[in-house]
Structure prediction request, 305 residues.
Amino acid sequence: MSNKRIITCAITGSIHTPSMSEYLPITPEQIADNAIGAAEAGAAVVHIHARNPENGMPSPELSLFKDIIDRIRDKNKDVIICITTGGGAGMTVEQRAAVIPEFKPELASCNLGTINWGMFPMLNRVKEFKFEWEPILLEWSKQAIFQNTFADLMTITGIMQEHGVKPEFEVYDVGHLYNCGYLLLAGYVKPPVHLQFVTGILGGIQATPYDLMTLHTTAERVLGAGNYTWSVIGAGKQQFPLCSMGLILGGHVRVGLEDNVYLSRGVKAKNNAEQVAKMVRIMQELDLEPATPDEAREILGIKKQ
Prediction:
C-alpha cells in the first residue's frame, strides 16, 4: 500500500476557543456530526476531545465522550476513533487517562514529553470573547506547563497496554523521539510505534520544512526503519503546506479544526469535512490515495474492536 496515506481529522481539540470560529464544534452532537462528515470525506481516523456543551470549555467528563462515541458509531461503524489523553489545560493525568479503561479505543493519543504551551498570542487576534473563561485560559498559558513526565508516560502506556489500546505518540520536539526510544528499549511499548509530529505550537518545534526534516531523520536514526509509522500536523497556516511535504516524504497527515480553523487564507472552514476534502485533493495531485479505515488498521497494526 505504498500509495496509501492515512488522513486523521482532529475534530475540536482544546486549543481553539469558541470565539475564534463560529464553526468550532462544541456539543456532542456537533462534534459527532463533524466526525461523521470527516470520515465520509476520506478520513480514516477521527481524533476526539470533549467540550462543555454550555460554554465550549474543554472537558474530561466521560459522559460527554460516551455521547460523542455513541453518536459516531450509530452512523459509522468503521472509522477509527482516536481518543485524547492530552485533555485540556489544568487536567490531571488521572482525568486524562480515564477514557482508556472506560472506552478501550483502538487508538489513543499519548504525549511524549513536557513542554511550555503558549496560547496567549491568540489574545491579540480576538476582538470580543463569547465566554469569560476564554481570555483567562489564554492569559494563564503564559505560565502553563503541559506536563508529561516519564512517570506519566509509564502510567499511561501501562494502562493502554492493559486494555489493548495502541498509543499514538504526540511528538512536540526532537527530544521526545529519544523519550520514545527509551520506552521501546525498556519494554513499555512494542514496535512498530505510531508517531504524530506536532509542529507549530509555541513551546514546541515549529512548522517549517527544516523542522519536519529534523523530526523525520531523527526518528529514522533513533527508532530505526520498520519500527515506526508517522504522521504530521502543521498548526495554523502551515497545515496544508507541511502536510503536503509529509506526504512526499512518505508520511501520513492530520488536518482538522483542532489544528487550524481556516480552509485557506482568510477563509474559515465551515466544518472538518472541508479540510479533509482539500487534503484528499492534494493527495490525488500527488498520485496518492487516502487509506480506508481497514487499510489504516493494517498500516498501524491494530485490530478492529
Q: What stands out?
A: The mean pLDDT is 96. The longest helix spans residues 28-41. The chain has eleven helices and 16 strands. Residues 43 and 204 are 26 Å apart (CA to CA).
